[in-house]
Fold:
Amino acid sequence: MTMPVAPPVPVSRPPEAPRVRTGLRAFVLSASCSVLGALVFLVTFGMTLEENEGVLPGALSGLIALDVVTGLAAGIAVGPLRHSRTGNLLLVIAASLSAWAVPAGLVALVRIGTRRSYAWDGAALAIMATGSLGMTWAHAGTTGQPMEVGLTIAALVMAGAVAVAALMWGRARGTRAALMTSLREQAAAAERERQATAQSRDASVAQARADERRAIARDMHDSLSHQLSLIAMHAAALSYRDDLSPEQVRAAARTVHECAGEANAVLREVLAALRESDTPEVHAPHDSPLPTASSIDALADEARADGQQVSVTWRAVTAEEVQHRSPATSVSVARICSELLMNARKHAPGAPVEIMVEHTGADLALQVTNPVTQPDPARLGTGLGLVGVAERARILGGTAYSGRTAQGLFEVEVRIPWTG
Structure:
């Protein structure tokens, strides 16, 4: 039986463009150092010919040949040896022995300085000093002239100054590169922290909205139960009592019709809230009665008892009318008013709060304003109270706005569709 052969797994290869750019940079650097080294060699060779009156001893010719060979090798190798510490030290050795290799040696010194290592800097300086002394001694030996102490010291000082300058330049480049790397890492860390904070904030907002939808569903569930109880009671009266007059029958039927319509509206709101809930949970039933529009005055009295200045104004509508027309809207207005009073107590402690409930056209508007003061950090919450208010208004088909006014007040306005 022939075993199935798995298809070959494609091997990912690095892009060719970076390789090409790296190779091109290495070639340009090697060519530049070779050309500059040739110019340095020609200058030194001309000075040597002038000192020896155009006649080169055999031993000096050997040193010049060594200079050419070493310089050519250093010029070719300076490009590929970019990341090699040992290779760059070898280039420094070549620069201390060959005039042609001086440009390549300077590049190597800058590279060594970039690594910001005192041990490697000291080794490079020692190599330059030793090589300069050695070449001065060899040059004097081949020409038969005695070594001059002044010229020797001058050569050492010049070689050391050039080496120190190249190393310091490299150290400055290394410090700048390290600083840029640190800044990039800090920027990346700050971006990751910002994204994590944004994700955490989004999760908190989503959780607040889900909690508000579940609270609406619970409130509407209780209101729906009340409407269904009224329907059941009046329907039972129509079913079992045969002594009702036609007027009483019509009144009971009208009550059943109105209750059924209100129950249908509440049911739609409950289903909308549950349909948008991402993580439905089972909550224990509430034993406390549902608040209504009539509870707003009681909420204001409680706030005044706690030292908060609260005023309530009703325009073109009363609490009883809101409760009679739409029990669901009545509960929502009371819940929103309670949340906004708590929000004002946290963010503007001691400031007066004005509450206005107004019937305007097809909307029921709730407006809460208070002066902007310095909040107490110990009393601040999560900042998600207004998110819950906006979510409740949105689910009920309304809108919510909050912000500062030109008069220096903080204003929250909630509009809920309602026909009075």
In short: Residues 130 and 145 are 20 Å apart (CA to CA).
